[in-house]
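Folding Problem: From Residues to Backbone Shape
Fields: amino acid sequence; protein backbone structure tokens
RECORD BEGINS BELOW THIS LINE
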Amino acid sequence: MLKIEDLHVAVGNKDGGGSEILKGLSLEVPKGEVHAIMGPNGSGKSTLSYTIAGRDGYEATSGDVLLDGQSVLDLDPDERAAKGLFLSFQHPMEIPGVQTMNFIRTALNAQRKARGEGEVSAADFIRLIREKAKLVGLDDAKLKRQFNVGFSGGEKKRMEMLQMAMFEPHFAIMDETDSGLDIDALKMVGAVVNELRGPDRGFLVITHYQRLLDYIKPDAVHVLAGGRIVKSGGPELAVELEKSGYDQFIEAA
């Protein structure tokens, strides 16, 4: 499903003259699996997520990122989204003046149109978003507000999960979605991911801590340090990291 081959990424210059953050990162996430990436600050976790999603300023100088065998590096962010790539941000942005339901419906129908699918009718959309809003713990009043304006950090993360539940992406990248969340919100994130898990969908969960993985049981855990994957293992690796920290892997990197 997602295959990253010897990826080198420089940040800060479109000509590749910026600082190199990813230094030969290789990773493969098969269909139907949830993989977690853990690592210390500055190791390149967010750089990896931004590069896959196509954020401006995060340029691959060599290597490739393949989704279902097709490179995505030359695609614009909206084209990647149309192919089913979804990124849940660590710090979701506010969009003043844009009503939440209009924003989500427009984005959903734009993706469907790009895939040659019909638009979701207004009635079907309202039924669906109310159903998913209950799953993430957002009431109708929040759906009628401007997008993320005046929301707490936890409410913004719930809105991210609402979008993921609505879009049902082919492959979802979750960049420290657990940052700043309480126990109830962590359980909500786990519930959304577990509802979406399936044989044709994959997840890459980026986190500092093992606690989120109590609710999202990963198939594999990878340690990212110094711009490379330095160790991979099963869910027990997350427990080991919680106990021992990252120092040994920083030295290895």
Observations:
- DSSP finds nine helices and twelve strands in the chain.
- The chain has a mean pLDDT of 92.
